[in-house]
Here is the input.
Amino acid sequence: MIVLGIETSCDETSAALVEETGDVQRPWTTRSNVIASQVPIHREWGGVVPELASRQHIRDICGVVERAFEEGRASWADIGAVAVTQGPGLVGSLLVGVSFAKAAAAAAGLPLIGVHHLAGHIESLVLQNGELPVPSVVLVVSGGHTSLYLVNRPGQYELIGRTRDDAAGEAYDKVAKLLGLGYPGGPVVDRLAAAGDDRAVALPTTRLTHADRNAPALKGDLDFSFSGLKTAVLRHVNQRRRTGPLTEREIADVCASFQRVVVTALVDRTFTAARRHAAASVGVAGGVSANSRLRADVEAYGRSREMPTFVPSLQLSTDNAAMIAAAGLRQLRAGVTSSFGMNAEAGLKL
Ligand code: KG4
Ligand code: ZN
Here is the structure.
């Protein structure tokens, strides 16, 4: 079966065709994965402007779906179901994808599958690498989320840690903004950090030891916090600017030092969770998993502990519809589809 996936939760309009292979170890293959990025539109404003994002999704969605069919060499007659990101995300953006998917599924007489965006990020690992050895600990780290999931069985996601404040990608974007590096911040901080000294600026690391009042079921010591780090960078930069603008070298040092603290926290917590839950593998997915240091450190840490580690390809790291189609296929095979009364949900829980 081929599933059409649609993703419009934030600032990328994406459509993809993903096909079942019949191989239980590598269950899916990507026939097409078309992504229309809105980054140039939002860059001017220093971040995603929700109203502009939803309007641009409306302009792009039909063309993006047509291209997904062309590149995937398929027609509507070949499609078995339509999967769409139901949430979480910007509600105006989500609504464009959900409305399109409902209309398409109704017109073509196909099942509709509402997918959680983070389930999509987790399944990007399986789309790329095949089924993960379970139990697996998966870190989903993006502009909106920094969460640790325990996957005891394929398709079963248990939240075991999360950020109490900023997501790691959000911290990257804010630090880039205060350094005047533009939007989105992750890729540029990553690039500049390569030339910097990661010990040049002393920045605090946050380790939480207590349960979160808002999520008492979690022990809390696998949680993250990045807002104090961001404030420390701001304070350092403001103090330094009193004597003139930062040099290129100093900016690179700030980027490298900030990146070291973020990546250390992500890797440390992920492998602590893996040890605690006797994981057979570790995965890292979401936009920040494109980070060069995070990829290298996860791989090195895993190798030194003989723990298989998995990351998606760069294209599957950031938001895309192939991961949504893959998660949709997983749900469809588990017998979980959505009614046409389903709606976009900005705060959907996994
Ligand atoms: O998953 P994604 O495309 O969208 C969300 O669901 O949020 O993630 C986007 C985030 C942005 O915050 C962006 O700055 C960050 O991923 N990002 C990176 C890198 N590439 C993208 N962060 C660090 N290093 C990168 N190379
Ligand atoms: Zn995402």
The mean pLDDT is 96. The chain has two domains: 2-121+317-333, 133-307. The first strand starts at residue 2 and ends at 7.
